[in-house]
Design goal:
globular; Four Helix Bundle (Hemerythrin (Met), subunit A); about 80% helix; mainly alpha; single chain
């Protein structure tokens, strides 16, 4: 049972090609359902891991990898499909990509120094939820007002920026701790 969160994360990764295939084939309902399942299972694996102490080193890598791979696949696919209608979607994805690349680079640097990283905190979790909700709205309600979806993208982008900034004190503390350890 203690491997359940890792299995859920692995299944989320396996769902990505099915999401992309359905989106590119313009089968939006199945794609949307897959996206919602991925989002709900993301919350479920984290809950199970924390609630029952099923946190593992593999899970610390697999869960964020599933998150990032899903977000990249969704971003590229939706950008391709709705990029002409919502031109600013590329700015939205650029902000999210920059945040993820920054966090990935800094986190990898810390891991290389042997620093054990904590899991995501509430700003990152809120950002993930906003991302999934915004993408689900785009998929399930393709005729939604461009102003409404623009507002959602702006809110998600600002949350992503806030999340990245909120991790700065932790990163600096980890850096100091790593220097003390050497």
């Amino acid at each position: 049972m203690r491997h359940t969160p890792n299995l859920i994360s692995f299944i989320r990764i396996c769902l990505i090609p099915f999401f992309v295939w359905n989106m590119l084939d313009e089968r939006f309902l199945p794609a949307g359902v897959i996206l919602v399942l991925s989002g709900v299972s993301d919350a479920l694996d984290g809950f199970l891991a924390r609630r029952f102490g099923w946190i593992s080193q593999l899970g610390k890598v697999l869960d964020p990898a599933a998150d990032k791979l899903t977000q990249v696949a969704v971003s590229i696919t939706l950008g391709y499909i709705v990029g002409q209608r919502y031109l600013w979607i590329w700015c939205f994805f650029a902000v999210l990509l920059a945040k993820e690349l920054l966090m990935l680079t800094l986190g990898a640097g810390l891991l290389k120094k042997g620093v054990t990283l904590e899991g995501a905190r509430w700003p990152g979790k809120v950002n993930t939820v906003l991302f999934y909700v915004t993408m689900a709205v785009l998929i399930f309600f393709p005729d939604v007002s461009k102003y409404f979806i623009g507002f959602m993208m702006l809110a998600t982008s600002l949350c992503a920026i806030y999340a990245a900034i909120s991790y700065a004190p932790d990163y600096l503390k980890y850096q100091r701790d790593a220097k003390k350890g050497n």
